[in-house]
């Protein structure tokens, strides 16, 4: 991945997000040139948590038409755990 070395490229793994969400948000803020205070970072971490996003209709695909995604056959967001498919 040659893009990985670019200053405007952000690479993060799901495992990293789970282990260090605040650190990931801080790294992303640096790349975007944003300076968030501790309370703002806490808000981002809380609202980007798996459970919050799973419950949010804007991010959990529950608003997508059934012709594109059949929720009855399975959820788009399942457990939010790394390697849960094993």
Automatic annotation (TrEMBL):
<dbReference type="InterPro" id="IPR000863">
    <property type="entry name" value="Sulfotransferase_dom"/>
</dbReference>
<protein>
    <recommendedName>
        <fullName>Sulfotransferase</fullName>
        <ecNumber>2.8.2.-</ecNumber>
    </recommendedName>
</protein>
<dbReference type="InterPro" id="IPR027417">
    <property type="entry name" value="P-loop_NTPase"/>
</dbReference>
<comment type="similarity">
    <text>Belongs to the sulfotransferase 1 family.</text>
</comment>
<dbReference type="Pfam" id="PF00685">
    <property type="entry name" value="Sulfotransfer_1"/>
</dbReference>
<feature type="domain" description="Sulfotransferase">
    <location>
        <begin position="2"/>
        <end position="85"/>
    </location>
</feature>
<keyword id="KW-0808">Transferase</keyword>
